[in-house]
Design brief:
Layout lengths: L13 H18 L9 H25 L5 H24 L2 H40 L28 H18 L7 H26 L4 H24 L2 H38 L3 H15 L4
Amino acid sequence: MLHLWSAKLETGLPKIDEQHKELFRQVGVLMDRTKAKADRIPETVNFLGDYVLMHFNDEQGLHASVQYPKAAAHKKQHIAFIAKFSELKKKLGDSGDNLQFEVMTEINSTAIGWLKDHIMVHDKEFADYYKQRQARLPRGGPSAPRAAPKAAPRLWRPELETGIPKLDERFQEMFRQAEILLDKDKAGLAGETISSLGEYMAKHFRAEERVQAGLGYPAAQAHQRSHNDFIRKYKNINLKLTAANPGDRQKMTTDIGRGLTTWLKGHIITQDQDFAAYYKKNRQGGQKGRGFLYRLFQFLTRRQD
Ligand SMILES: [Fe+2]
Ligand SMILES: [Fe+2]
Ligand SMILES: [Fe+2]
């Protein structure tokens, strides 16, 4: 029953592709009038409904695992399909034998049409995001496992160092990502980079703020305001970019890359270095304090996924 399936529906995520094929197989069973004997219809329709739910759940779980920015809109699509499917299922239950075939045809065309459109556009878009993200960002974002040290990014300057290696590593990763935005040859990666970099930074900010709060850092509030200010502006710019004409996007992307590195340099020099100095001073406290700070530092750098 795989004739409904075609290679262009492949997302490249094996588990998702397997589930999509199974969905088409089930719809195929319903379409085959020799197999879809009247008494088997309700069973197959029920199975299809359950399988769809399971599949949507798996997909949404995958969205959450990588903080997919379009997860909410995608989920809305799933919910709309479930609503439509339930309505048709009810109609099927209510229809007499003579109407069953018509309702069945409606279920089939709805299911096939919707699945194809949805997979082609939305599931594939997610699959691309997922694959790019797996390939480029260290797993777990800010608390990436410490593999071989990477070369310092081009825009990095020694005076930006805070003296806390884990913080410096993260800042360098932000610069590395920002450099993708400044590179015209990587224009295709811009949209995804802007989203993943925004998440990476937001995660890092929250971790930094937790440590500051835990240490009673006196400038914690002002520091947090600076983070929040940045996140708000960044979101606005990203929205504008999404709405912009394709012709304007390249310049906007470069501006975002420049604005971001300028902000980051300013923030590191005026605020993060101040915090780093405070952190280092307080870390040198007594044995007891050391243990506590050590745990906080572990907290700052732990895996967050
Ligand atoms: Fe989906
Ligand atoms: Fe799907
Ligand atoms: Fe900061």
